[in-house]
């Protein structure tokens, strides 16, 4: 699994995000590689226009592939930050939530109807809650700065 962050995108704990996606893939019976790109709104808007013919940014896009390569997931860190504030949690957790949504699309879930969307979001919530209970921790990237020694 590869996770790339665009310059200027909200930092996220890549190891924890990869652990979540591995956990969810295992729970869904998926076996294969995938990549996640945490990008900016302008970058996901270009993908949105190119592949779906829709102008403007979105929160997550998924590009399925044939196993063993499952596909690619693009998550907008900018849109995730806005949605995180509305949801009352951190931008890193929202990025993880959206990447998990993309993984569920790769597993065959769809959200075109209200019933499909409700089923998908319920599964997404259940997987994230189970992972966080099993593996508590922060979604933001751990600081690489060393604490200053007292003078």
Task: Evaluate the radius of gyration.
Answer: 16 Å
The H-and-E topology, N to C, reads as EHEHEEHHH
How many helices does DSSP assign? 5
The side-by-side strand order for the widest beta sheet comes to: 1-2-4-3
> Average pLDDT across residues?
93
The chain-level structural class is alpha/beta
What's the shape?
globular
The share of residues in helices is 40-55%
The largest sheet is: 4 strands, mixed
Q: Describe it for me?
A:
The protein has 151 residues and is an alpha/beta fold. Helix content is 50%, strand content 16%. The protein has helices spanning 14-28, 41-52, 77-87, 91-106, 114-134; strands at residues 2-5, 33-39, 60-64, 69-76. Strands 1-2-4-3 form a 4-stranded mixed sheet, with helices on both faces. The protein is globular, with a radius of gyration of 16 Å. The termini are far apart.
Task: Write a brief structural summary.
The chain is α/β, with parallel strands linked by helices and 151 residues long.
């Amino acid at each position: 699994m590869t996770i790339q962050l665009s310059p200027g995108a909200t930092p996220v704990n890549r190891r924890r995000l990869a652990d979540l996606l591995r956990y969810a893939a295992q729970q869904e019976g998926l076996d294969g590689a995938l990549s996640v790109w945490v990008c900016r709104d302008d970058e996901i808007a270009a993908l949105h226009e190119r592949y779906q013919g829709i102008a403007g940014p979105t929160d997550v896009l998924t590009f399925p592939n044939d196993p063993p390569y499952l596909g690619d997931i693009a998550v907008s860190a900018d849109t995730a930050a806005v949605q995180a504030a509305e949801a009352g949690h951190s931008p890193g957790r929202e990025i993880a939530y959206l990447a998990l949504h993309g993984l569920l699309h790769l597993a065959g879930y769809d959200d075109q109807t209200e019933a499909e969307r409700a089923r998908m979001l319920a599964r997404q919530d259940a997987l994230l809650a189970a992972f966080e209970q099993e593996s508590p921790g922060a979604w933001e990237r751990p600081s690489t700065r060393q604490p200053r020694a007292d003078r």
